[in-house]
């Protein structure tokens, strides 16, 4: 290389570095808190791994806050700009007369994410087979428990009289409790349900998601003040999620599993793929970010049936569909 070329390269290098720095600074940081880490949220991880957020000029900082209460606390205290959590939490906060309520602006999952797992193989299962059994359910007051009881009642089963219902085991210990011999049936999320089946400890026999109907089960929400102050970021965030929702419908399950594998280091690629298939086949992944009114009303019916609805909240009060409508019309 000639001296002249070397000199030109040295002169251009600082410019290139400054340009790269400027591009990095242009990314808008968004603090995102997710209620748990789950393959149930596959489109979110796709939006990160496939660069859809970056394409929209966003640098998403993802934190797992483990639980609805802690996730909502993070959002309300400005520890997060956006929260991925069950839509019912926004109703609980609203009922406490919050001055700056969390608003649901984009939907990620539209069904319950739990499955009914039996200890023994069951041929030609009927829901009435549960009567008289010991049923290991989810924590009282949580959305999985509310959906579980709602589905049982839809099949003429009184959860508190027709079953020996166990609800005093922490969420993190339900799988191990069943594996160690507690209960004839258990209500479980993935991948725990599939892992028990792989180990021969349990058998997936039904889906609470298909039985309960469409609900805004897991949604993105932000405080009203944040939406008012930065609607452009809300629009970009929603667009990135919509890109991911479309992407998972266009790609095969193995490609999706490879995309989200870095988020599940302790889970094999084969299990990730199978769990994605299970959720995808039952329609758990919302095809668009739109939170529709029918699902919102169904959510409140389930909460009311469980005795957990503090007050009925109109759809327009806690749902902002402006960004979803805009993006889907593009």
Question: With helices defined by DSSP (H or I, 4 residues minimum), what is the helix count?
Answer: 16
Structural class computed from helices and strand pairing: alpha/beta
Alpha-carbon Rg, integer: 22 Å
Low-confidence parts: 2-12, 15-23
Protein name: SsuA/THI5-like domain-containing protein
Signal peptide: 1-20
Main location: periplasm
GO cellular component, one term: periplasmic space
Please tell me about this protein's structure:
There is one protein chain. Helices cover 47% and strands 16% of the residues. The chain has helices spanning 3-26, 42-49, 52-55, 68-76, 88-95, 143-154, 174-179, 192-198, 208-212, 224-229, 231-250, 253-260, 269-281, 293-305, 315-318, 322-328, and strands at 28-34, 58-64, 82-85, 102-109, 114-118, 134-136, 164-166, 185-189, 203-207, 218-223. The protein has a five-stranded mixed beta sheet, with helices on both faces. Strands 7-6-8-5-9 form a five-stranded mixed beta sheet. Helix 12 (253-260) crosses helix 13. The chain is globular, with a radius of gyration of 22 Å.
